[in-house]
């Protein structure tokens, strides 16, 4: 199947940074940062508005990980990336972040891309 015919796995989510782990590096020296994002919004489902709240485990590697070092708990961010299993044994999803955008009061609308 050509790449353009394959189902997509693009996830975009905005929210507040709840927790941010310490920056670590892979054996190849690539920066890695895990964090937890809290999302709250109003969505329409079956023609009815409902409040949606969730927490999403995220991981950023490379430049997005370095950019997130400037974030502190409570900061508003918008991220985009793809969902994958956390590990071979833990199949719960984690959002692998490719882009990060700070929202609400950040100077210059800092954005990092892969």
Automatic annotation (TrEMBL):
MF term (GO), any: single-stranded DNA binding
NCBIfam families the record matches: PriB_gamma
Family recorded in the similarity comment: Belongs to the PriB family.
Protein name: Replication restart protein PriB
Keywords: DNA replication, DNA-binding, Primosome
Function: Involved in the restart of stalled replication forks, which reloads the replicative helicase on sites other than the origin of replication; the PriA-PriB pathway is the major replication restart pathway. During primosome assembly it facilitates complex formation between PriA and DnaT on DNA; stabilizes PriA on DNA. Stimulates the DNA unwinding activity of PriA helicase.
Domain of life: Bacteria
Oligomer and partners: Homodimer. Interacts with PriA and DnaT. Component of the replication restart primosome. Primosome assembly occurs via a 'hand-off' mechanism. PriA binds to replication forks, subsequently PriB then DnaT bind; DnaT then displaces ssDNA to generate the helicase loading substrate.
Any GO BP annotation: DNA replication, synthesis of primer
GO annotations of cellular component type: primosome complex
Organism: Sulfuritalea hydrogenivorans sk43H
């Amino acid at each position: 199947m050509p790449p353009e015919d394959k189902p997509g796995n693009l996830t975009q989510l905005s929210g507040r940074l709840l927790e941010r782990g310490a920056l670590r590096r892979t054996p190849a020296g690539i920066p890695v940062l895990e964090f937890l994002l809290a999302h709250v919004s109003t969505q329409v489902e079956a023609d009815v508005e409902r409040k949606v709240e969730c927490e999403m485990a995220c991981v950023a590697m490379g430049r997005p990980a370095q950019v997130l070092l400037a974030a502190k708990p409570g900061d508003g961010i918008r991220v985009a990336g793809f969902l994958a299993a956390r590990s071979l044994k833990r199949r719960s999803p984690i959002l692998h972040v490719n882009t990060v955008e700070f929202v609400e009061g950040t100077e210059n609308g800092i954005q990092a891309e892969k």
